Structures are given as structure tokens and as C-alpha cells.
Amino acid sequence: MSVAENDPPFRCETLLIVGVGLIGGAIAQHARQLGVAKNVIGLGRDASRLRAAEADGVIDRGVTTAGDVGACDLAVVCTPVDRVVADVQSLAGLARPPRVITDAGSVKEAICAPLHCVGQFVGSHPLAGSEKSGFEHASAVQFKDRICVLTPVPEAPADVLRAVRGFWEAIGMKTVTLDARTHDQVLARTSHFPHVIAYALASLLEPGDAPFVAGGFRDTTRIAASDPALWTSILMANRDAVLETFRRHRQKMAMIEEALASEDAELLRAGLLEGQRVRQSLNS
């Protein structure tokens, strides 16, 4: 791995992607296109999917056994959050483990706490993605100028953290550092709970409502098209923070319900204005 003038800020000989799905495929594509890695290897369970990823130019080579990877500079684990810990431990236990390991999981405390003794691991969460799944949709994922959160444990070696930060910045992301718990609390509000709302709202439709669905409903429920199995694992892994967000949401909804029940237009308007102000501030 190296950093050099007039080259991508981070370069490596071999990059390993564990889980060549939407995010894993997008990371692989960006690393290849930007010259961040000379060789990109995909590790997964389904040999036919890996062959398809090879044929599409997403990865250079696919393997189904970690022992077949060989020498590797950096590994990015992109499997569902309930598998990340085991996958990292498996890589770290190889006779020739990757020099640096990170992940792309949407939950961090459940991942980073059990891995604090794995010296070459630093947790990451690239804030990019889609409601779609599979490497076939990876080209739609954009990393440029998006945030990637790093959640290193205090014991993380400086060179490992530097390599992980350099990798994400090399594929166009901006990195910020948070402790794992703070990350999970923030993401419960900005991502995890909004998915719950989208799923719940979509399920409210009655038979015959579909012809009357327009932009508002489609915009609000777009992420309800996401893989329920993936989101079950995310929500269960971050359930404490999500439940706290539920409590706050109930308070907001109770205020709006009370305003409607009591025909208090001013209270209702105040509640809606608060939401409008916050939403408009995101565009500034």
C-alpha cells in the first residue's frame, strides 16, 4: 500500500471484497475504475454469482473460500451486519491475514465491540446505497463527496486507521470519525427508523388504493423496496437506539394527533412548521 504525489491518495496491490452485492460491488467498481487497487478479489458463498461479477468486470477474480484469497493488502467486509463479526474473525485468523480489514456495516457498536482486539480492523460505514440489491445495480451507487463514518476503537493502530481513511477518500468519500455508540444513535434517526416508517406506511395501503398513489407516497416509501432480511438484521442489531427513536416519534405523533382531535389548527401548524424547517435546512 502506498501514498504518492500525483497518484490516487491510496493504492494497494490486492483488495478483497467480502460479499459482492450492491455495496461490495460498488466499492469494487470504484476501486478498479480509479486505480485504487490493481487486483480486486471477491469472496462469497455463491460461485455462480461470483462468476457473473467477474464477467461484468466488477471483480477480477472470485473465490468461495477465504483460504484461496492469498496475499491481500485490504479487505472490506460487505456482508449483512449479523455476519460481519464472524467474517472479520475468519479473515484475521488466516495464515496470511489481510494487512488491514474494515467493513461497510450500517450498525457499528455490535460489530466493533467484539472486534476490539483485532488489531488490523477499523469499522466503517459508507453512507451510500440504494433500495435495490445485487452488484447489477452497483453502478448507480455514488461515493463522491458522500460521508464515510469511521469508528476506530481506542486501541486501533494509527497506520491501520490511516490506511482505512485513505482508502475511502481514494474512492471519493469524505471521512468523519465517531465512536460506535454515537454512530448508531445518529443512524437510528437518519436511516434505520425512516426505513421502519417507510415499511409501515407502505403496508397501510388498502386493496384498490394503488391507482391513487402519486408522488408523495412513492417518495416517502421508496426505501420500503429494500430487502426486508437485510433490514431485519440492521434493526435487531441497533434495536436500543431504534427503540429510543420510536419513543421520540410517538411524542411527535401524539402532539399532531392531539391537535387534530382538539381542532387546534395553530398547534397542528406549529408541528408541521418544525418539520418543514428541518427539511429545508438540509438543502442549505
From TrEMBL:
InterPro entries: 6-PGluconate_DH-like_C_sf, NAD(P)-bd_dom_sf, PDH_C, PDH_N, Preph/Arog_dehydrog, Prephen_DH. This is Prephenate dehydrogenase. GO terms for molecular function: NAD+ binding; prephenate dehydrogenase (NAD+) activity; prephenate dehydrogenase (NADP+) activity. GO terms for biological process: tyrosine biosynthetic process. Keywords: Oxidoreductase. The keyword Oxidoreductase applies. It comes from Caulifigura coniformis. Residues 13-284 form the Prephenate/arogenate dehydrogenase domain.
